[in-house]
Design goal:
Rossmann fold, 10-stranded mixed sheet, binds adenosine-5'-diphosphate, binds alpha-D-glucopyranose
C-alpha cells in the first residue's frame, strides 16, 4: 500500500505537554503509524514548558487568519517525537500559549480566551500544510480543542487543491468537555453564519466546537468500543447524544494501546535498577518498600492500593472520598497522586493527617512518581464514573498490579472480572458506582490478596503478559483512515 500523509492536530502530546491520557495517545500513535510506513506528523502549541533549545525554528512566521481579529502571526518550531522520526510542529504565539498550564488558571478555572487559543491552533494547522506544502490524506483531530479543523476542511479549505485528497477523522477522548463558547466566536471561525444552526455548530445558542467536529468530520472514533456505544446515550452523551446518533454509522470504537517504550517494567528507567518481569516479582516488592518509605508509610506487609488520577468527578473521586473511612477500616495502605478539584486537595490532606500510617497523598503532577507507584503497588483503584478508555488500568496490569474498576467504557473493555471458581480474570470489577459497591469490591480484592496468594500471584503473571501494543490499534486506525477516504469519495491508491 502507498503511504498516507497524516496530520495529527492536538492540544497535548507526551513528552512535551501533558495533563492526561490524550498526551500519551498523541505521543504514541503517530510513531506506530510511521512504523506502518505512513508519514504521520503532529501539530501542537508551544506552551511555556516546551523546551525550545533542541527545536529548529522556521525562518518565516506563519500567517493565520482569525476572522474579525485579523491575521495572527505565529512562530513555528520543529522537533521530533523521541525514538522516532515523527516531526512535531509547535505553534508559537506567546500571548496565547506562553503559560505554565495548558487550559486552566491556578484555581482550576478555564482561561477566558480558550476559544481563540484553540481556534488559532486549529487554523494554524491548516495554514501550516500550505507553508510546508504537506498534502494530507488524513487530518486527525482530537477532542474539542482541535475539532474546528474538521469544520475548516469542509468549508474554507473545501476547494483548496492542497486538501483535495484529504478526509478527516475526529477522535473523541472525552465527551464531557465540548468547547462551548459565546456565539460571537463565529466571527473568528469565519466559516459563515449559515453554519450556526442546530445541525452543525450551534448548541444552546452557543458555538459548540466538539459538535462542529462531530458534524463535519468524515469519520469519528471513540477511544474504546464500549465508550463508542455509551456516547449515543443520554447518560454519557452530555447533551450531544442526539448529534452523535446522526453519525452512528461513521463512528468506530478503537481501544488505545500502551506505549511500551514508556511503560514496561522490564525497561522502565524510573524503577531501575529494580526492573522486573513475571519471573522476578521480588523486585516489585523492593519497589513497594521504597515507595512506602518515600510516601512516609510504615514498610509493612499489607496490600498497598494506588490511585493516580486527575482528582475530578469523572474519576469517581467523590465516591472514594465518601468511602475512605470504611476503606481504611481494612488492614490496607493507600497512596494517592493527583490534582484537580480544589476541595480534594484539602479533603485528602486531612485524611492523611487522620490516618498517617495508612494513607499518603501527593498533590501535583509527577511523571516519575507515577511510574514508581504503578510498579510498587499491589492493587490499582480506578472507580471512574465514566472512562472513555483509561490508560492507568492497562499500565497497572502490565506492571502486575491488578486494577479495581467500575465497569464502564474502556475499563469494561480492558478488565475481565476475577472469577473465584476458576481463578481467571485480569482485575476486580463492579457495576453501579456507589460507596458500598466500592468498599465491597476493594474488600474482595484485599481478601484475595491475603487469602488466595497463589491465585493472586497467577493473576499478576497473567496480566503482565497482556498485549496492549499500539501495533494492533495503529492497524485499526489505518483501516479507519482508508474507510474515511472512501466515504469522502477521495480515491487513494
Ligand atoms: P485521563 O486522560 O482521563 O486523565 P488516562 O488514564 O487515560 O486518564 O490517562 C492519565 C494519564 O495521566 C496517565 O498517563 C497517568 O499516569 C497520568 N497522570 C494522571 N495524573 C497524574 C499525576 N498527578 N502525575 C503524573 N501522571 C499523572
Ligand atoms: C481522556 C479520557 C481517558 C482516555 C484518554 C486518552 O482523557 O478521559 O479515558 O484514556 O483521554 O484517550
Amino acid at each position: 500500500m502507498s503511504k498516507l500523509n497524516i496530520l495529527f492536530v492536538a492540544s497535548e502530546c507526551h513528552p512535551f505537554a501533558k495533563t492526561g491520557g490524550l498526551a500519551d495517545v498523541v505521543g504514541a500513535l503517530p510513531k506506530y503509524l510511521r512504523k506502518l510506513g505512513h508519514d504521520a506528523r503532529v501539530v501542537m502549541p508551544r506552551y511555556y514548558g516546551v523546551d525550545r533549545s533542541k527545536l529548529k525554528k522556521f525562518p518565516a512566521p506563519l500567517g493565520v487568519p482569525m476572522g474579525v481579529i485579523g491575521e495572527m502571526w505565529c512562530g513555528i518550531y520543529e522537533g521530533v517525537l523521541p525514538e522516532s522520526e515523527v516531526p512535531v510542529y509547535f505553534v508559537d504565539y506567546e500571548l496565547f500559549f506562553g503559560r505554565e498550564s495548558l487550559y486552566n488558571d491556578a484555581s482550576g478555572i478555564g482561561f477566558m480566551d480558550n476559544d481563540n487559543r484553540f481556534v488559532l491552533l486549529s487554523r494554524a494547522a491548516m495554514q501550516l500544510c500550505k507553508a510546508l506544502d504537506f498534502r494530507p490524506h488524513i487530518l486527525h483531530t482530537h477532542d474539542w480543542h482541535t475539532s474546528a479543523a474538521n469544520l475548516f476542511l469542509t468549508t474554507i479549505y473545501a476547494n483548496d487543491e492542497r486538501f483535495a485528497r484529504c478526509a478527516s477523522v475526529l477522535t473523541i477522548h472525552n465527551m464531557q468537555y465540548q468547547g462551548a463558547f459565546y456565539n460571537g466566536l463565529m466571527n473568528v471561525l469565519d466559516v459563515g453564519w449559515e453554519h450556526f444552526n442546530f445541525r452543525e455548530v450551534e448548541m444552546d445558542d452557543k458555538v459548540n466546537l466538539l459538535k462542529a467536529g462531530i458534524t463535519h468530520a468524515t469519520m469519528i472514533s471513540a477511544v474504546s468500543p464500549k465508550y463508542a456505544r455509551e456516547i449515543l446515550t443520554k447518560e454519557f452523551g452530555y447533551g450531544l447524544e442526539a448529534t452523535m446518533r446522526t453519525r452512528e454509522g461513521d463512528l468506530w470504537g478503537v481501544l488505545n494501546g500502551v506505549d511500551t517504550d514508556e511503560w514496561n517494567p522490564r525497561t522502565d528507567r524510573f524503577i531501575a535498577p529494580n526492573n522486573y518481569d513475571e519471573n522476578s516479582l521480588e523486585n516489585k516488592l523492593k519497589i513497594k518498600r521504597a515507595l512506602q518509605r518515600e510516601m512516609g508509610l510504615p514498610q509493612r506487609d499489607a496490600p498497598l492500593i494506588a490511585i493516580v488520577s486527575r482528582l475530578v468527578k469523572q474519576k469517581g473521586i467523590d465516591t472514594i472520598a465518601e468511602a475512605i473511612h470504611d476503606l481504611l477500616k481494612m488492614d490496607i495502605q493507600i497512596v494517592m497522586l493527583g490534582s484537580g478539584e480544589i476541595w480534594t486537595h484539602f479533603y485528602f490532606g486531612d485524611i492523611m493527617k487522620l490516618y498517617p500510617k495508612q494513607f499518603a497523598c501527593r498533590i501535583g503532577f509527577d511523571a516519575a512518581l507515577s511510574h514508581r507507584i504503578e510498579a510498587g503497588c499491589d492493587l490499582f483503584l480506578m472507580p471512574s464514573r465514566f472512562e472513555p478508555c483509561g490508560l492507568n488500568q492497562m499500565y497497572s496490569q502490565l506492571y502486575g498490579s491488578p486494577p479495581i474498576v467500575h465497569g464502564v467504557g474502556g475499563l469494561e473493555d480492558s478488565v475481565q472480572n476475577y472469577d473465584e471458581r476458576t481463578g481467571e480474570g485480569t482485575g476486580f470489577k463492579f457495576y453501579g458506582l456507589n460507596a458500598k459497591n466500592l468498599v465491597n469490591t476493594v474488600g474482595w480484592a484485599v481478601h484475595t490478596w491475603y487469602n488466595e496468594k497463589e491465585r493472586f500471584r497467577a493473576m499478576q503473571k497473567r496480566i503482565m503478559r497482556l498485549d496492549y501494543g499500539w501495533e494492533r490499534s495503529a492497524k485499526t486506525y489505518e483501516a479507519l483512515y482508508l474507510e474515511a477516504l472512501k466515504r469522502a469519495n477521495k480515491p487513494f491508491s
